[in-house]
Amino acid sequence: MPRLAVDAGPEVEGVLADVVAWRRHLHAHPELSYQEHETSRFVREQLAAFGGLQVSAPTPTSVVAELVGSRPGPRLALRADMDALPITEENGFEFASQNRGVMHACGHDGHTAMLLGVARVLARLRARLPGQVRFIFQHAEELAPGGAQELVAQGVMEGVDAVVGAHLDSMLEVGQIGVRSGAVNASSDEFWLTITGVGGHAAHPESTVDCVAIGAQVVVNLQHLVARNVDPREALVLSVTQFNSGTAENVTPGVAELVGTVRAFNQELRQRAPELMERIIGGVTSAHGASHRLDYRRGYAPVVNDPGITELVARAVRRELGAAGVVEVQPTMGAEDFSAYLQHAPGTFFRVGGSNPGLGISHPHHHAEFTVDETALGVGVRAFVAASLELLGERHLDRANEG
Amino acid sequence: MKLADRALAAQVEAVRADVVSWRRHLHAHPELSYQEHETSRFVRELLAGFGGLDISSPTPTSVVAELVGGIPGGCLALRADMDALPITEESGSEFASQNHGVMHACGHDGHTAMLLGVARALTGLRSQLPGRVRLVFQHAEELAPGGAQELVAQGVMDGVDAVIGAHLDSLLEVGRLGLVAGPMMASSDEFAITVRGVGGHAAEPEHTVDSVAIAAEVVTNLQYVVARNTDPQQPLVVAVSKLQAGTAENVTPGTAELAGTVRTFSDGVRAAVPGLMERVVRGITQAHGASYDFEFKYGSAAVVNDPVTTERVRAALRRTFGADGVVDFQPTMGAEDFSAYQERAPSTYFMVGAGNPERGIIHPHHHARFSIDESALSTGVQALLSATFALLPQLGPDRPA
Ligand SMILES: [Zn+2]
Ligand SMILES: [Zn+2]
Ligand SMILES: [Zn+2]
Ligand SMILES: [Zn+2]
Asked: Is there a single domain that holds both residue A204 and residue A353?
């Protein structure tokens, strides 16, 4: 039995058609990261119309709405991201992108629409709710350094006891909600490596220090980091994705530029990666008389779901959708800046199945023909509402009134 | 021989000032390989003015002139190259390049001027010349596939009994000549390799075949061709001078492009290298589930001097310049398309010292501040004339055994 005896069913039913319409409007008018001006204006206007919400804009293209319940209780944050991608849409439906070269190819249009739906449902149930709910409509999830850390710096996580987010998943069957405790998305760091040798005529190796051959040795030896240097139970990816050196057949270049990405679920391993890389690169380059500069830039931290919150959410969603509606999903090495919120409060990030191979809906995220089965939106709203009511009813989450 | 030497010295002295001024004119008006239009016109006009030469243009920007001596004999070819380089001159001299971005940074202006001087001197000595001299003013030495093989295909080596060439050398002291019998400059071949993997998201290595990591293995394992697969006594360079792959931080690229050069003195090693390289490329790409394209382009062969011809020329130069004036040249892995002529007749290629550290003439060839001590030009003219009169009597149908 839910601890709050609140039946959200009729309100949820009442909002579903609007959620689909909002999603289609947003899908037709996608905006790139940090440029979500019309999107955030649309969101602000809808929220204002719901009534009972305190709406603010912590940054130019983000929106936060606060719902204060009728009595004290836990403070919950729910997050949706709003940005689109620099992809030219190849879908033929009537609400395809009207903004050529920009596309909602990751489903953030759906996230925004779902959270608007949840906000309207909960706003109408306000008199019967304890605690507070903060709705975070985040800009710029797709582009480093990401909107999440900016919003955290603006204080959106102050006083929050638990945070919940979700992502549509075109690889998970529609009707299902995917949950997992622990790590679900990897960290994503980038590195830029310059190897400096001595350029010269390719016929005279004795008077050059060959940065192509040394750069190759560095790439080869970096494989030891994953294969031989870390706990084999810990997932780690180190990909060198660019190698640029040389212009002519007969000139040994003086500099090689390498670029890549490092992904991990384990924060401690992630912290050690640059130091391990530095050891390998320093050793290999000095062995051959070259020098190097490693510029390691931290990106998104791994998304690590809190077991307690995840279990509460899974339980509530199972009750709402039935046991078959909740599945345990595998972690992905893809990254998400939802992790920035999780540094400040326990929470969970779940997936909303959106695939329907029968309808030809099976393209991966960031694909020009990506889309979701829109019935996923209703499932997502129901899951969010069930999770919210569950968490708001958990007295022990309320850190402010603890003891 | 004393008389002939004195006659040669007088001819050299007579053309000295002109050779310097021709060289300065050419230096101020450099032209790139295959574009030596004004240069070849300048050469043709001067040659026509000397008289007695049979002048032709086997290709649009090359010139060949033949002089038939007063005494019957064999045929000797003398070769100069005429092209400049895509380098912006920084020498600051008053006859610096007027053609921005193009520079005579290898001394081919000097080679052309020297051979013009030789041509004029020989026309003056025609009655004493025991045989025929073919003067080859070659285009495009600096750019593959090179003008030499084109001129050979046009027949400039037909009927030639021996061939001589010379290169100014800013790292050899002016006044000295460098010779070596046997291998002198390396062959120069090029290769291009494409490693074909499977591109994809850099966070999902299990769905990609990483062309960057595999290309790195290819470069690393190609070192075995030099270090472990070939005769350690045969010099060999396998240099991967280009590796290009990828465009984004988070996308593993599907292909990596490699290119480089191979240098050696040995025909056997040269013939074996493409097979050894492809074996490495095939094995490494196969080991990691990738595929590859391998292209090997043969360029110029090694410059290998005929010992007999070289020793004859060395003896003549010692007589003219003294024992101190002639030094042993250390073979270099640099290349020269003079090798194309060498495949058709016994020959030697020698170096004419043009460096002078006291005057700051120390920059290597192809350097933006490359220059020569111009007194090297007379040395070169005299050396070519001495070699001509030493070799010609030994050539032809009734040459001594
Ligand atoms: Zn995305
Ligand atoms: Zn996304
Ligand atoms: Zn050159
Ligand atoms: Zn040259």
From this structure: no
Q: Which CATH number do you get for residue A274?
A: 3.30.70.360
Does the interface predicted TM-score (ipTM) exceed 0.85? no
**Contact of A84 with A31, CB cutoff 8 Å:** yes
- Asked whether residue A307 falls in the same domain as residue A283, the answer is no
- Under the banding of pLDDT at 50, 70 and 90, the label for residue A250 is confident
Chain A residue with CA closest to B190: the answer is A249
- Which of B36, B141, B150, B337 is flagged as catalytic? B141
User: Chain A residue with minimal CA distance to B185?
Assistant: A203
Distance from CA of A260 to the nearest CA of B (A): 5
> What's the gap in Å between A87 CA and the centre of ligand 1?
11
Query: Region B362-391: what's the mean pLDDT?
Result: 95
Q: Which two tokens stand for residue B331?
A: 């073979």
Say whether A247 and B242 touch across the interface (CB within 8 A): yes
Last residue of a domain, which of A300, A318, A340?
A: A300
Q: How far is A266 from chain B (nearest CA, A)?
A: 15
How many angstroms separate the alpha carbon of residue B169 from the centre of ligand 3? 10
Question: For B267-326, what is each residue's pLDDT tens digit?
Answer: 999 999 999 999 999 999 999 999 999 999 999 999 999 999 999 999 999 999 999 999
Kindly state the helix (H) or strand (E) to which residue A361 belongs, with its residue range: none
Instruction: For each of the domains in chain B, give its residue range(s) and CATH number, in order of start.
Output: 2-185+302-394 (3.40.630.10), 187-300 (3.30.70.360)
Distance from CA of B239 to the nearest CA of A (A): 6
Choose among A124, A116, A96: nearest CA to A17: A116
Max intra-chain CA distance, chain B? 84
Print the domain residue range for A116: 9-184+303-402
**Helix and strand numbers, DSSP H then E, in chain A:** 9, 16
Identify all chain B residues contacting A250, using CB atoms and an 8 Å cutoff: 188, 190, 241, 261
For residues A153 and A198, membership in a common domain is answered with no
Cβ(B91)–Cβ(B161) under 8 Å? Answer: no
- Looking at beta carbons, which residues of chain A come within 8 Å of B256? 243
Determine contact, residues B62/B33, Cβ cutoff 8 Å: no
Which residues, in sequence order, are CB contacts of B159 under 8 Å at separation 6+? B75
Tokens of B25: 């004119």
Q: How far is the CA of B83 from the centre of ligand 3 (A)?
A: 9
Indicate the DSSP class of residue B302: P
Residues of B with CB below 8 A from A185's CB? none
Catalytic site positions of A: 83, 141
Boundary (domain end) residue, out of A265, A300, A335: A300
Question: Do A68 and A174 fall into the same domain?
Answer: yes
Cis peptide before B145 (omega within 30 of 0): yes
Q: Which residue has the tokens 């005279």?
A: A204
Do A315 and A292 belong together in one domain? no
Beta-bridge partners for B351: B167, B178
Residue A28 contacts B where some CB pair is shorter than 8 Å = no
| Position A263, amino acid | R
Q: What span, in angstroms and rounded, lies between the C-alpha atoms of B104 and A107?
A: 62
Best of A187, A222, A223, A243 to mutate (most B CBs within 10 Å, chain B): A243
pTM: 0.82
Task: Please judge whether B332 and A251 are an interchain contact, meaning their C-beta atoms are less than 8 angstroms apart.
Answer: no
Residue A37 scores a pLDDT above 80: yes
Nearest to B378 by CA among B121, B136, B170: B121
Q: Do both A258 and A361 map to the same domain?
A: no
Q: Which ligand is nearest to the CA of B349?
A: 4
**In the structure encoding, which two tokens stand for residue A149, read together?**
């850390």
Strand partners for B198: B209
Residues with a beta carbon under 5 angstroms from ion ligand 1: A 106
Chain B interface mutation, best of A242, A265, A284, A332, highest count of B Cβ atoms under 10 Å: A242
Both A311 and A288 in one domain: the answer is no
A199: its two tokens: 């350029």
